[in-house]
Amino acid sequence: MDFSMSEDAQHIHQQVKQFMDEFVNPVEDELHQPVKGDHWSIAPILEELKQKAKARGLWNMFLPPSFDGSGLSNVDYAPICETMGRTFGAPEIFNCSAPDTGNMEVLLHFGSEQQKEQWLTPLLEGEIRSAFSMTEPDVASSDATNISTRIERQGDHYVVNGRKWWTSGIADPRCELLIVMGKTDPEASRHRQHSMIIVPRNTPGVEVVRNLSVFGFDDAPHGHSEVIFNNVTVPTENILLGEGRGFEIAQGRLGPGRIHHCMRAMGVAERALELMCLRAKSREAFGGPLYKNDVVLHTIARCRMEIDQARLLTLRAAYMMDTVGNKAARKEIAMIKVVALQVVCSVVDRAIQVHGAMGVSQDTFLAHAYSLQRALRLGDGPDEVHTAAVGKLEMRQYL
Q1: How far apart are alpha carbons 136 and 146 in whole angstroms?
Q2: Where are the domains of the chain?
């Protein structure tokens, strides 16, 4: 397997690194500063950086060139995504952040021409943002067949009724559309009951009940919200691909999205390890620097070994997606979804331990990083679901 980047990708990666060092990392704290005390407002510096990145062509790097992307393979994109993942907010600067990336891929592959013109084009331009609404509080959404929100056809409209939560991105004032998964035909076969539909954010009946926190972090202005759909009426042309195609779309959306999370997670893990090493070098305890303590050295070594293993597994999944397609690579995608996020959680946790009390405070990025990565072990399917899938796929060759 060849995991090397193409020459074009290496050039783009170098540009991204330079852009991060010159423009993004020096103002990392400002990326999340609200306007005039409005906690859910957009920091002006964020939009300024987006325009700079766009002008340099560092934009939509996960998409093929025919759709304004850089034409990178998954193997090419992985190190670039890792670099962006080191800094909170950086992926959005390059228009490469969730849930927009997944929603753009849905519209690209499954949207009608009218849907692409109305919604995909402004998303590609970075003019609007979006949300994905699937998980529900009243059912075990790890089994997506439980999704009970109803999407019922009434003449030339669909009417949506239900309650969702963890609808990430809807709190963003720039959010203008939701992609909602719900049940259109309860009598159909198990995986043909559900559909996905586009719901404009300002449609009457879309009510944000509350914004949820992740270990106390609300991730403003992006947010993770509980939402009620109360007789939300949209035109029939807002259905994606057709009734009963929801699971088909979900698999197409979640494969790339899962591996993008894993790629970014490697950046988080690398940054946490760097902070751990710098802390071990600068801090003294019990008569000497921490790095001379065998326990600390073993901790550092363990982190390095686990990160490199996880990165190689991520690249293997990316290679399989490039060469045999997402469906054939589903075992590799499932494996890395478990391994990468478990590794990054362990590395960040150890970095917190080496930092002591400082590690759980706001004085480093570690506490917030842990909260986000730990939550992702539930997002897009919990570890147990992916582990069971790997076991079933492994057993097929013996049955």
Answers
A1: 9
A2: 7-97, 129-244, 247-398
Domain 7-97 fold is Butyryl-Coa Dehydrogenase, subunit A; domain 1 (1.10.540)
Average pLDDT over residues 168-186: 97
The predicted pLDDT at position 66 comes to 58
- Write the DSSP symbol of residue 127: S
pTM summary value: 0.94
> Helix-strand-coil percent breakdown of the chain, rounded to 5?
55, 15, 30
Q: Residue 176's beta-bridge partner residues?
A: none
CATH topology of domain 247-398: Butyryl-CoA Dehydrogenase, subunit A; domain 3 (1.20.140)
Which H or E element spans position 246?
helix 246-282
* End-to-end alpha carbon distance in the chain: 28
pLDDT for the residue 30: 87
- Measured between alpha carbons, how far is residue 157 from residues 46, 207, 234, 288, 338 in Å? 38, 20, 6, 72, 40
3-state secondary structure at position 376: helix
Place of tokens 């679901």: 385
Residue 18, classed as helix, strand or coil, is helix
Is domain 129-244 given the CATH code 3.30.540.10 in the classification? no
By three-state DSSP, how is residue 131 classified? strand
